[in-house]
Request: fold
Amino acid sequence: MERYSARKVDELGRIVLHSELRKKLGLKVGVKISIAAIDSIVVIQRTDSDGCEINELGAFTIPHEIRQKLAWATGSEVAVYHTDALLILKAI
Reply:
């Protein structure tokens, strides 16, 4: 697993991914992703079913329930790790 960068959660619970990472992982505008909290991390992966979509700015919203569970507030910094199939977010 490779650490890519640190990102901040904005006031709407969004995180923006760098364009280089989106290209590397094939996360184009409209790609659906599933978001799940497991222990103290958030796991994100592509899905064919209902899910959150990557927007034109490369952002997606972490659901409020997950942010609340992990105590991620506006301005919280998270480290972005990735494999070929997963993104993993962990509070710094």
